[in-house]
Amino acid sequence: GDSVTQMEGPVTLSEEAFLTINCTYTATGYPSLFWYVQYPGEGLQLLLKATKADDKGSNKGFEATYRKETTSFHLEKGSVQVSDSAVYFCALSDPTGNQFYFGTGTSLTVIP
Amino acid sequence: NAGVMQNPRHLVRRRGQEARLRCSPMKGHSHVYWYRQLPEEGLKFMVYLQKENIIDESGMPKERFSAEFPKEGPSILRIQQVVRGDSAAYFCASSPNSGTRNEKLFFGSGTQLSVL
After folding, report:
1. Residues B74-98: pLDDT tens digits?
2. What is the pLDDT of residues A25-78, one digit of tens each?
């Protein structure tokens, strides 16, 4: 079945460091791919998405490129801030758009 | 335009009691999903409902757990005879009518269930 595997945390970085959180997926057909972010005490919010191969999703300085050849959707940011501290979830939706699969989440802490 | 509303925000129950978690999806959304989040375990799918129908309940325990999404009113996740292992954050998410695979999920702020 469809699934998402993401890099285990926790990840701790200094402010202005480069961030990469790896995500790979297994899917039949052509899923859409998402990164969601969860701030402490809140629900998940969509950070970015990509709907087809080679698409790049971007938002708030974060980017991820849909790589069909490597079945990956790694999240990157060139310079993290303390306010980026949160849990990040990689997810995919099946081709019908009815079912969503989430990774286990990666906790990021950015220290000043 | 109100977002996904979940209540209560915090729910405390003693072992053996019943827990009812409510979720009102965003206006115009007819699809509701329930997820459970345990520390160190990420987000686990429980059930997917459309109005008056359960579409996929493959992630929900067969006993003590049930969910509904009536024609009128919120979706309800019901846990009977709660045990300590049911303590977790329960998140509801909604999406508009499907038909396109590009739709995203809109999440509520969750209900933190604590079983004493």
Report:
1. 999 999 999 999 999 999 999 886 5
2. 999 888 999 999 999 888 899 999 999 999 999 999 999 999 999 999 999 999
Residue B52 backbone class (left: φ over 0; alpha: ψ -120 to 50; beta: rest): left
B42/A102 CB distance under 8 A: yes
Selected residue of B101, B111, B112 to mutate for chain A interface (largest A Cβ count, 10 A): B101
Nearest to B98 among A41, A98, A102 (CB): A98
Chain A touched by B72 (CB under 8 Å): no
- Report the side by side order of strands in the sheet with A62-65: A19-21, A75-77, A62-65, A56-59
Q: Beta B53-56 vs B5-7: how paired, if at all? A: unpaired
